[in-house]
Amino acid sequence: MTIGVLGTGGIAITLATMFARAGHEVLLGSGTEGHGVTGVTGPKGEGGAIVTGGCCEEVVARSSVVVPAFLGVQGAVQQLRPWRSGLRGKILVDITNPFTGGHIDFVGPWAVGGTEDLAVAFPGARLVGAFKNVWWEAFDGYPDPAVPDIQVISDDAEAKRTFLRLCAATPFTYVDAGGLDQARRVERMVLSGVSSAGVSAA
Fold this sequence. Notes:
By secondary structure, the protein is α/β, with parallel strands linked by helices.
């Protein structure tokens, strides 16, 4: 399956590199076609996997799994809105957290989770939440035994299983953390410093 990562910041490039090293074909989307690919460690990844660049619209159209690496939930909603129809039926991986400025608190009430908000905004997409319970530094210099298990949430059991299979060759341990109603719990783990001691579902 082709994995499309949208964005050219540090997290986007790191995730693209990680999935390429795991043997997947990866597309890196940006506002300018091809921008950011030179920042990927080993543009052709390892094992022959390829990371290529393109505009976001093209990447959404060509990918089976889309990982937007935009700032915050509201930023992701705004950025993804032009490609709403293109996301229909595709696995949309939400990595955002609803942080306030300075990352000291959360936007919105406890009862609302960011991935739930994306699910409402893009009802045709198959939402999976992941990488929410770790700081971005966890991706720098991995594997690190101190990094907690990655909590994965979704109401779509098959989409979750597919995502976990795609992640099996990455250097993290993944845990099935339930449905989207668990988004608010998982998203608050990173600020509270809570780690997971669950069993790997990968």
